[in-house]
Amino acid sequence: MPETTRERLTSGGWKELEFGPFRDAVTIHWIRPFEGDQPGVALLKYEPGASVPRHRHEGLETILVLDGVQSDETGDYTSGSYIVNAPGSEHSVWSDTGCVVLIQWDRPVKIFEDEIS
Keywords on this record (predicted)? Predict the structure, then answer.
């Protein structure tokens, strides 16, 4: 990860980064997109009340909450929380107040709502 990226994450400089569409009321800034069998690393920004529907992790997912509160069925995670979701685990995610998280996926997730659409 380039030094400038590290500094932006630890000093709140992520606020100046450009985010693009991901899901309704959730935007993404790719640090390292998926490439071949390499994991994807990104920042996700949830607007207050935003959610991601139930999904399954095809690989390991790690999350560091940088700002705000992210929630799932097992709890609420405040700034500084580190979450690990094992391959095969399922959950939905939301943020009542809004949040920004650093996330790494070993593999893309499978969102169940997309199968129905």
Answer: Hydrolase
d(CA 89, CA 57): 6
Domains of the chain: 3-116 (2.60.120.10)
DSSP letters of the chain? Answer: --HHHHHHHHTTGGGGS--EEEETTEEEEEEE--BTTBPEEEEEEEPTTEEEEEEE-SS-EEEEEEEEEEEETTEEEETT-EEEE-TT-EEEEEESS-EEEEEEESS--EEHHHHH-
28 pairs with which residues across the strands?
A: 20, 44
Backbone dihedral region for residue 88 (phi beyond 0: left; psi -120 to 50: alpha; all else: beta): left
Identify which has the larger pLDDT, 90 or 116: 90
